[in-house]
Design goal:
Elements lengths: L6 E4 L2 E4 L2 E2 H8 L3 E5 H18 L5 E3 L9 H9 L4 E4 H10 L7 E4 L5 H10 L2 E4 L2 H10 L7 E6 L20 H7 L6 H14 L2 E7 L9 H21 L7 E3 L27 H18 L8 E4 L3 H4 L3 E13 L2 E9 L8 H4 L6 E3 L8 E7 L7 E9 L7 E5 L20 E5 L2 E6 L21
Parallel strand pairs: 4-19, 5-12, 6-7, 7-8, 8-9, 9-10, 10-11, 11-12, 14-16
Antiparallel strand pairs: 1-2, 2-3, 4-13, 13-14, 13-18, 15-18, 16-17, 19-20
Helix pairs in contact: 2-10, 4-5, 5-6, 8-9, 9-10
The protein binds pyridoxal-5'-phosphate (PLP).
Amino acid sequence: MPLHEHLSFRDGELFLDEVSAGQIAREFGTPVFVVSETQLRRETRRWRQALEDAWPDGPAALLPAFKANTCLALRHVLNGEGVGCDTFGEHELRAALSTGVDPARVSLNGTNKSEAAIRLAIEHGVRITLDSPREVETVLALTSSGSRPALVRLRLRPGGETLEAPSDFSDRGESIAGLAAAYRPGFALSDAERAARSIVDSGSARLVGTHVHLGRHTTSLSTWSGVVSDHVRQIARISAVCGGWRPEEIDLGGGYAERGSPVGQAIAGRGAAPEPPSPERYTQVIAQALRAGMRHHGFDSKGVALQLEPGRAVYGPAGVHLTRVVSVRRSPERPDRRWVELDTTEQFLADVVLEHARYPFVLAGRGSAAPGVPADLTGSSCGFDIIAAGVTVPEDVAPGDLVALLNTGAYVETQTTNFNAFPRPATVLVSGDLVEVIRRAETPAEVFARDRIPARLMGR
Ligand SMILES: *Cc1c(COP(=O)(O)O)cnc(C)c1O
């Protein structure tokens, strides 16, 4: 994989923007999460521009998913880029609003929204992407005609024939349709029709549009266009039962792959992934399918807003996880393969298990390739802790070598745990030659800060 723009080798040393990985590791310790502000801005601008170019029909808006990386400083960066935000539930919504994001560009998503979350969204004029009949009842109970109407959209379940393709998430060859069927969010069409009618009749909530989120199952563009076509078919049915209602906005969720995408790459037998589509290709294909579907069903696409919620595609490429080699050992049972033990752990890289992720990596202090030998990169927990199996490392890889795991800007830091009492690592932000802590490391004491010991157990 070609390195992302913020990464370069200079005299055999990896640089992130203008700072060497070695300097960051020395100053802030390892393991450490690093995010390049310039790369985050670059990805955001590219997606935003691609979406605007692909959808001249009406307003186009990017709502990067906050859950992918909740560092508030990064949200401030994105606010500066003028993009919106997809949030999940009350706590993400509250955190995102605290950064000053424009509430009119925020969507409250979530599979089981609390009344408090819905109340907060109504108060701030945040769009509520409704997920179930119960949430419709909650919204209607919290609003009354005369007050500012709640702005709501209906999340519909993804469908269509193209979902028969296999999912990148599955190590058992399951189809996207099979996994999507087991994933609960979104209205079934018949429920959506009923919900739409009650909202349109209510006078206290305004049904502004629809939403669908497929997720990062595939990089196949034909699957994506199939999902979009099916979504418009469902919109047409809703329109028919609601006296010709038309969506003002359509949100096609997230799930877009980025260059070097780690998802599914650790699955045995899966060949090297083809380059995923560029933001320009994704947005063109989606916009074309949307426009064609709307025409087919008699809707005018003019003036309709198109929104996308990429999370990993925006945040992922900007992140690097720096970790040092602690030891190199061999097992008598597998003399041909080394274990390269790192000072990080799968507990800080959960998707190596959950999504069979294999992060692309480089040895930060070795620009030139020494002869390679087979190895497993492993972590420091008591588990198998296999971070990358069957990879190639330089023959003389040794304790102290710095390993940079790439594409770790999304869903990595946010899923870290304290298993084995590991304090969670810091996140630092690199911007040109500046390096600043944006989420400090946890202290070992903080791992137990919530513990309370009943006095009766302390007596003797
Ligand atoms: C998780 C999620 C996203 C972001 O998905 P990515 O795979 O990171 O692009 C967007 N929208 C919704 C509703 C989500 O649940």
